[in-house]
Amino acid sequence: MRAKLVTATVIAGLATALASAPAANAAADGHLSCVTHTVKIKGNDKILTVRNKCGGTVKVNVHQSMSDSGYKAVSRGSSRKFTGGKYHYVCGLKIYYKGTRYYNRISGPLGDC
């Protein structure tokens, strides 16, 4: 009787762990791998290009230490450029995809928070 109870508990625990697993394109830390970014510096302007390789439209917000860009839609298979001197000290990208919130950190020439 006790062995059946232990086995049932283990099976219930495995089912819970499998049900709470993140989506295939999201890492455990909330990173969405199908949204990528590149940073280029052209004169005084810093150009942040965000590419959407996901299966649907994503909403992207450039998270900064002072102010955010606001959410912009990026459709499937396309990209969006955030250009200008105002994109300093960029921390990351806040992303909404299929009702889930993700955060992709940005490091490099734009600066970290």
Q: What's the short version?
A:
The protein is an alpha+beta fold and 113 residues long. Helix content is 16%, strand content 41%. Strand 6 and strand 7 (100-105) form a beta hairpin.
Strand order of the largest sheet: 4-3-6-7
Largest sheet: 4 strands, antiparallel
Inertia-based shape: globular
Which value, in Å, is the CA radius of gyration? 19 Å
Mean pLDDT: 75
| Class inferred from helices and paired strands | alpha+beta
Helix percentage range: 10-25%
List keywords for this structure.
113 residues; alpha+beta; four-stranded antiparallel sheet; three-stranded antiparallel sheet; 1 helix; signal; Secreted protein
Describe the structure.
The protein is of the alpha+beta class. It contains one helix and seven strands; from the N terminus they run αβββββββ. It has a four-stranded antiparallel beta sheet, with no helix packed on it. It has a three-stranded antiparallel beta sheet with strand order 1-2-5, with no helix packed on it. A hairpin with a 7-residue loop joins strand 3 and strand 4. The termini are far apart.
Reconstruct the topology from this structure.
Layout: H1 2-19, E1 35-42, E2 45-52, E3 58-64, E4 72-74, E5 79-84, E6 90-97, E7 100-105
Antiparallel strand pairs: 1-2, 2-5, 3-4, 3-6, 6-7
Signal peptide: 1-26
Organism: Nonomuraea insulae
Protein name: Secreted protein
